[in-house]
Design a protein that fits this description.
This protein is mainly beta. It is built from five helices and 28 strands. It has helices at 36-45, 49-63, 70-85, 94-103, 420-425, and strands at 4-12, 18-22, 105-109, 114-122, 133-143, 149-159, 164-166, 174-175, 191-194, 204-206, 216-226, 232-241, 246-253, 258-263, 275-276, 285-289, 296-301, 311-314, 324-327, 332-333, 338-345, 351-358, 366-369, 375-376, 390-391, 396-398, 401-408, 412-419. β21 and β22 form a beta hairpin. α1 (36-45) runs antiparallel to α4 (94-103), α2 (49-63) packs across α4 (94-103) and α3 (70-85) packs across α4. The longest helix has 16 residues, at 70-85.
């Protein structure tokens, strides 16, 4: 039986993790009547200086200790309202501007409902790491009010002795923002968002910003991608959801400061759960996908953002995966071939994690496959928002060990270490 070391740490939903987000009101006027935005601004403008100061003090007493640079956030939000309504900011004092900004913000608990489905990559900064240690970067799906999913990050260190230490979360979380965020309508197509210059990655959250993403950014599968010229870029596929339709999109970043969120095109992009190989193979991008909701497919493309239908690679074979199979993150390159973690769904919709070995030169060739799960929902892992589920969006190879972060019951995040040699021996 395969030995799996389960780290005792668990990450759970946390309602106390909050960010300040814009609060949007309809701003267009209806004939001669002022809009709600215009009416609200007029009400604040009509306040006396003393009343303005008193009201602002109440807001700051309630929220200033819970957020980073609260006054600056309010002023930035005011600037957006000023630009929309054509106000003359030179005639409005700082206190009124801060109060107006506060009326157009709200506090959002981005991980109140769930924290799940992590992926992991080597951190872009490995300076100072002793032998046997690796700095890592994880993405996680955070679910908040309205069941809206966003992308949260967490940094940490793992060692060759199955030890793990996560960087502390900063007291304040901040949301990425777009320079060209249009208040009048949600943007379409590609968009770039930016981490605040003073925010750590462990305190950064990427929220939906386009119309296609409006109800969630789901299950980011990060991969450290090495281009043929030796340059490195971090790419991640995820599902954009607008409440009725899904589409696959690609996150791209070279520095984890600016993040491009790019819709993918082609017939394959209508599906969930696409996982990119970490380099070109025979001059082409390759992806693992599930085009029919049941089997795994190998996709190939000359353009990383355009994907057509691929060739079937794997179909359910064992009792624990007869309902459907999918990937658990990007393939991992070994000397022996490409290690692909899979998930299978069996009786009572119980999820399990298995593994497949693909030929390094020809990934369409399956070299081996685990007959039994390497990880399955059991005991306390069964309970949660969606019971009987274990699920990962990506693991890391560290020496001869596989570091596997995984979601439990769509509710929390757990961590496992598995010896790669022992895993290959199970195939």
């Amino acid at each position: 039986m395969l030995e799996v070391f389960h780290h005792p740490l668990r990450l759970h939903a946390d309602p106390s993790r909050v960010v300040v987000r814009p609060f949007h009101l309809a701003w267009q006027s209806n004939g001669s009547a002022p809009s709600r935005t215009e009416r609200l601004v007029r009400e604040v403008m009509a306040m006396s200086p003393g009343q303005t100061r008193d009201e602002l003090e109440v807001v700051l007493k309630d929220f200033e200790a819970r957020h980073w640079q609260t006054r600056r956030v309010f002023m930035t939000r005011y600037d957006e309202i000023e630009a929309m309504l054509g106000l003359d900011g030179g005639l409005i004092g700082d206190e009124k501007r801060q109060l107006i900004g506060a009326y157009f913000c709200h506090e959002y608990s981005y991980a109140a409902a769930a924290l799940m489905n992590p992926s992991a990559v080597p951190h872009f900064d490995q300076t100072g790491m002793p032998e046997g240690s690796m700095r890592i970067l994880m993405s996680m799906r955070a679910v908040g009010e309205g069941h809206i999913s966003s992308i949260a990050f967490r940094e940490g260190i793992i060692t060759s002795n199955n030890e793990m230490r996560l960087a502390p979360e900063p007291p304040f979380a901040t949301a990425t923002d777009s320079i060209d965020n249009d208040e009048m309508q949600l943007p379409e197509g590609p968009v770039t968002v930016f981490r605040h210059r003073d925010s750590t990655l462990s305190g950064t959250v990427i929220f939906p910003i386009t119309a296609a993403q409006s109800k969630g950014l789901e299950d980011l599968r990060l991969v450290q991608f090495e281009h043929d010229d030796g340059s490195v870029e971090w790419l991640g596929t995820y599902t954009a959801y607008n409440g009725s339709m899904i589409q696959s999109e690609l996150m791209r970043t070279s520095d984890f400061r600016a993040f491009s969120l790019v819709p993918m095109t082609g017939s394959a992009a209508r599906n969930k759960g696409m996982a990119l190989f970490p380099r070109l193979i025979d001059g082409r991008y390759m992806m693992i996908g599930r085009q029919d909701g049941e089997n795994l497919f190998l996709l190939q493309s000359d353009d990383v953002t355009h994907w057509e239908e691929g060739a079937r690679l794997l179909q359910p074979a064992y009792p624990w995966e007869l309902v459907q199979i999918g990937n658990c993150g990007p393939p991992i390159e070994l000397d022996e071939g490409w290690l692909l973690l899979t998930h299978g769904v069996g009786a009572m919709r119980k999820y399990s994690i298995g593994a497949v070995l693909l030929d390094k030169a020809n990934p369409s060739k399956v070299l081996g496959r685990t007959r039994s799960p390497i990880l399955a929902a059991a005991n306390e892992d069964r309970e949660g928002y969606v019971p009987n589920v274990v699920y990962s969006c990506g693991a890391i190879r560290h020496g001869d060990t596989l570091f596997l972060p995984y979601g439990v019951a769509d509710s929390s995040v757990a961590f496992a270490f598995i010896r790669i040699g022992a895993l290959l021996a199970q195939m």
